[in-house]
Amino acid sequence: MRMRKLGALEVSELGFGTLSFARTYGQAPEKAESIRVIRGAHDLGVTLFDTAEIYGPLTNEVLLGEALAPVRDEVVIATKFGFDVDPATGARGGLNSQPEHIKRVTDAMLQRLGTDYIDLLYQHRVDPNVPIEDVAGTVKDLIAAGKVRHFGLSEAAADTIRRAHAVQPVAAVQSEYSLWTRDPEPEVLPLCEELGIGFVPWGPLGTGFLTGTVSTSSIDANDFRAGVPRFAPEAMTANQAVVEAVEQLAAAKGATAAQVALAWLLARGPSIVPIFGTRRLDRVKENLGAADVRLSDQDMADIETRLARIEVTGERLPPALLKVTNG
């Protein structure tokens, strides 16, 4: 697989997000099967693996650490801090990026991951009660101590990114970005290009919707998407026009909708590294096939024209989560 740069950090051009192995989308798969899929992704050329302390919570890091232990020196592990998580019960509280908290949870992350360094440590959400300069300075200290190698921000506003970068170079910014979520385009993407920061789109397949395989019947009450306005039945019906646009281009390219959605992101810039998530190894193989889909300038213009006529219905996240984005 071809490689790309997130700042100075070299990674595969497509990464693997492991949130789907938690209970976010309903019942989590068996541990052995989860490990098989994660290791299978590495065998297929993926080097960037993404997790967070709140996935599980806490258990996802343990799973990923165990799965990647035999190939630790061949992979890049990214994880995230930024919330209060009770280490005994896993109960999640509010935002917390106090410096002492960051240091404490980083040590806990290292233990759960079974490693002595974290390749890429993100602030999961910006904490309005802690100056971003203090957060960046704390991660700078962790880098100096050898516990962390690179610093990232997630769902941060452009001004926050610039201020953090002035204290400790930001290797990557991770935010939701896809054919139906274009929020980073006006300010964040240009800033990343200006400062040499990599951009990591999460939800590159619209948390499954852009693949054309998600319906109201496939989302149960325990699925995170059940509380997302964009996945309400009436919104899904309205948004089917986006899927149809992607499927039309996919048919012309002899590709799947998922491959075109990922190829579109890869074509948006050389420092963009999408992270997709799936519980199935056959889907991993399919998604990685996006690297072989070439979209011409005309293809990109055509899909832009088609999408410009479609108004996406519904917010991308539940209200409580939207309040802590773009901080």
Give the topology.
Blueprint: E1 3-6, E2 9-12, E3 15-17, H1 31-43, E4 48-50, H2 59-68, E5 76-81, E6 83-85, E7 92-95, H3 99-113, E8 118-123, H4 132-144, E9 148-154, H5 158-167, E10 170-176, H6 188-195, E11 198-202, H7 233-253, H8 257-267, E12 275-276, H9 281-288, H10 297-308, H11 319-322
Parallel strand pairs: 3-4, 3-12, 4-5, 5-8, 8-9, 9-10, 10-11
Antiparallel strand pairs: 1-2, 6-7
Helix pairs in contact: 1-2, 2-3, 3-4, 4-5, 7-8, 7-10
List keywords for this structure.
TIM Barrel, single chain, 17% strand, 327 residues, 11 helices, 8-stranded parallel sheet, alpha/beta, two-stranded antiparallel ribbon, globular
- Radius of gyration, taken over Cα atoms and rounded to an integer in Å: 19 Å
Summing up helix and strand content along with how strands pair, one would put the structural category as alpha/beta
Q: Please, what is the oligomeric state?
A: single chain
How much of the sequence lies in strands comes to 15-25%
Characterize the structure shown:
The chain is α/β, with parallel strands linked by helices and 327 residues long. It is built from eleven helices and twelve strands. The chain has a single domain (3-322), classed as NADP-dependent oxidoreductase domain (TIM Barrel), CATH 3.20.20.100. The chain has an eight-stranded parallel beta sheet with strand order 11-10-9-8-5-4-3-12, covered by helices on one side. Helix 3 (99-113) packs across helix 4. The radius of gyration is 19 Å and the shape is globular. The two termini are 34 Å apart. The mean pLDDT is 96.
